[in-house]
């Protein structure tokens, strides 16, 4: 069934994926770049033997090395339990606490060291430097507040809707200290999106902030909490308490009123907890650390559940060896902590290694495209991590800016979407000044940490290619029939991972069937099998492997649009459009965009008798922003007389995608209504 529907999708709705595959096929092989000698001389991992040590036949023993990067209250009894595929368990019997691994254990050596540099967007506001000791104090006090004012205990879920401020990791680590499961919702998401996630995770406490800076404005954020509580209530879910941090302690910066008995200003409660310490809960390794909601093939976002032990071990290991973080480095990942990249590679990975991690509040191009390089210079950042979208924007708005500043990166990362070789080369030559090692890391919310990347101290770099599987990860490409493509065939197929690994999600929150269905069912050889070898993980991305073993990722094979590196479900967007009473059908397609990679175009058909108008188009756009957030705002809403349909009545998104992308929709004669194609072409901008 799954196989059939996936095949149907790839035939009927390839949309831009087809063109991406074609680009890939026409892309010439790029030449290699070598990481600088000075980089290799100091790199944490230069021993090629790591791949022999971590060969498939040595699974799962080699993951011991990952677990050993952490401090355990009780050592594990068994490294891997595969008895209930695909619900793998890692470091079974072990007990630990994520917050004490990211803070307490560093105090002896590093208490005076900066854990977090918080950079406010307004350039005249001083940068705040939190030492590990201060982080320890603030996390303890907030943990005491959560425990004593909210009655939270291990296993409870809490929703966070926090902007990019130091209080976000403080809140996450305070939850982790108690064994409370945090679920951070990206601050750019709407109150409604926050409500959906809070009710799915059954969070009764919402942690937010009154306001934050973005693009030169102090945005009201508290109002979204009011919407979230109201929307959750409609869904039958009660949020009892809203904890509101003040962006400026002592001053409430939102016009939204505080609701008596429900809303509490954190900064007013905290003095009661001054000096309080909370013993870190000794949690089972496979207890959940957090949920991270992500888009998939059906409408509702899924809560990817990540474990404490396996996840933390995996992000610590990959931070050390792929990000090459040493304790003396200043590390800046410009992602948002509201996405998995921020969880793994701003908070948990770097802090587990006692690094100094930078958190920047605002837009990379505010007030101008020189901002990131001024921050880098000011803090002497030497490891820099961002997405192709940000790189494209910085290149477009300030190609010559980096040369004006005296920072020096030893290492740079790109993540989140395929990077065009030309953009890679600018990143390397101009941002990296030709002196940095670059890693292109391919992975997902579900996978916890990196899957494919070069090891910067070992491999050469190839623009546009992620690289081979990272040590311990064994990818394979399967065709639609489940046959494995020959290694290095240069043919496109579905990329899978043969072996389980500690960072992989444990399940989808409250939906184990969907977990099995979505990631394992398609290529599982025998659903009764207890052998992990029969359960490859299907990532849902198309990929090709070149002769040198490097993988190039082509994009999603399911109904997901990757906008500026953020996954948005097409069904989520279409469902939002259908909330407008005039709309009877909606179809969203990805359009290539110079900066964001992809942006959505939204096609809608109206109920009989309804007149197309700008007003309706605006209502549709507003519905998408309300339901999901500004990030999903369509480039344009196109009101069509009818959707192009197959004879069986399926909307042909492929045709719409071609029109939106200015391409030839190909042979449309087999459609039920071929004449509508020209009519639509006349309307689209
Ligand atoms: C895409 C972000 C090409 C891919 C970490 C994947 C990439 C989805 C890369 C996951 C990369 C991520 N090259 N494509 N280096 N990294 N992707 O869950 O389609 O937000 O499935 O996780 O982004 O997005 P997610």
Your description of this structure?
There is one protein chain. This protein is an alpha/beta fold. 31% of the residues lie in helices and 22% in strands. The strands form 8 sheets. The chain has an 8-stranded mixed beta sheet, with helices on both faces. Helix 20 links the parallel strand 29 and strand 30. It is globular. The N terminus is likely disordered. 5'-O-[(S)-ethoxy(hydroxy)phosphoryl]adenosine binds next to helix 14, strand 20, strand 24 and strand 25.
N-end to C-end Cα span: 38 Å
Tell me the Rg in angstroms.
24 Å
Which structural class matches the secondary elements? Answer: alpha/beta
Main β-sheet description: 8 strands, mixed
Estimated share of beta-strand residues: 15-25%
**What gross morphology would you assign?**
globular
The largest beta-sheet arranges its strands as 12-11-8-6-7-14-15-23
Mean of residue pLDDT values: 93
* Small molecules held by this entry: 5'-O-[(S)-ethoxy(hydroxy)phosphoryl]adenosine
The beta-strand count equals 30
Compute the number of helices.
Answer: 22
Helix content range: 25-40%
Output the keywords.
disordered N terminus; globular; 8-stranded mixed beta sheet; 7-stranded mixed beta sheet; 685 residues; 22% strand; alpha/beta; binds 5'-O-[(S)-ethoxy(hydroxy)phosphoryl]adenosine
